[in-house]
Protein: Putative F-box domain-containing protein
Organism: Rosa chinensis
Amino acid sequence: MANCTKLHVSEEIVEQILSRLPPKSLMRFKCVCTLWWNLIQSPSFVAKHLSNSLRASSSVSILCKHTVEKKVENNDHAETGDDVETLLSSLYLCNEIDDLVAEVLRVPPPMNQISRSSDLRIAGHCDGITCLKFFVGNVVLCNPAIKEFKLLPKSCLLLPSDNDEYLDLELRYYTEFLGFGYDRKGKDYKVVRFVVYEESCYWFRAEVYTLGSNSWREVETEYTYREFFVMSGYCDQQMFFEGIYYWQVCGQVGECILSFDMGDEIFNVISIPWEEMPDEYHVRLGKWKESIALISCPTVTVVPQSFDIWVMNNSGNVKGSWTKCLTIGPMEGVEIPLLYAPLVFWKSDELLMVAEDGSVVSYNLEKQTVKYLPIHFVGDYFHTQAVVYVNSTVSINGGNKLEGIDNTDFYGINALGDGRLRAV
């Protein structure tokens, strides 16, 4: 009998190989043996897999929130709004953009049963975890790669009570903002949430949720007086970057950027360089080449179109000052809705946008070429969102079901019945 030689692979080599596999494969491989189950579940392996995923550059994952035509069995469409549905889709873009793969993220009910795009918002992403806002007051964390979902506890601090005798005043003008990120000091994931009641009953209060404690607590803020700062929404224009969350907001001090440090839990106001821009310009917050950036363009449609990129300076005490780095375009052969079309830089030289006809295009800054992607949006472009995310095995201690979501009263339907509740 011929001698058989067994190949023994060390546990270290196995760990190195597994840490470079996609989460979907790892979820299956957990069932191979107890050793692999314990390894893939271990915090050290999760951290190593996340580190490898963050360094990987061969492909990019993009989470899109968009509306599409609802599939019906006949040609009879219902009333307005019933012929479209809102989806969360994962786009996998390789270095060669022709290799795009699109996959609809299967979210559990009732999040998969909405038609209005404004009822579901992406409120941040970090390390493979995405924060979603569903109606008003419902906050959901999810990891699309491992199909985990977690509904956060309701806030008793910030939402008015049905028994509040001042409810009529408090709901005259209500604005809600969310942000999600990682606190490097506390080594925990956090959701920051602040609300503003305006007009006759103004106040600004904020709270922070930590994943480790699974609870909310109020944080102190200096924005307590109506005459100092009143904000209303561009809540789709927001992002987390290097420990700080940013929102593009508007108030009595003008259009600006509000930031929140996840570690120090301090808010800060950053100005926008309006004085250096021509009149009648619109800006959109984004990230470009590992820097906070503004994409500016004329509010009046000009063909062919162009965009300016401004980068925020972070050195020393000049945070909040801006430098104009380049101009994108003019772009020939494609019309872009200027107020909301630039979605995200999926690479340093590739900008993802929605064209006027709903087509999704990628514009290459260096080659100045437009590439149409094989996906299409319909309906409300204003609430279309896209974030670049990483595939990870970071757990949120959730499951594949969502229970306890409240889409009644002021959580999604105006309790007063007169259209005065405005939740963004």
User: Anything to note?
Assistant: Confidence is low (pLDDT under 50) at residues 1-7, 77-81, 409-424.
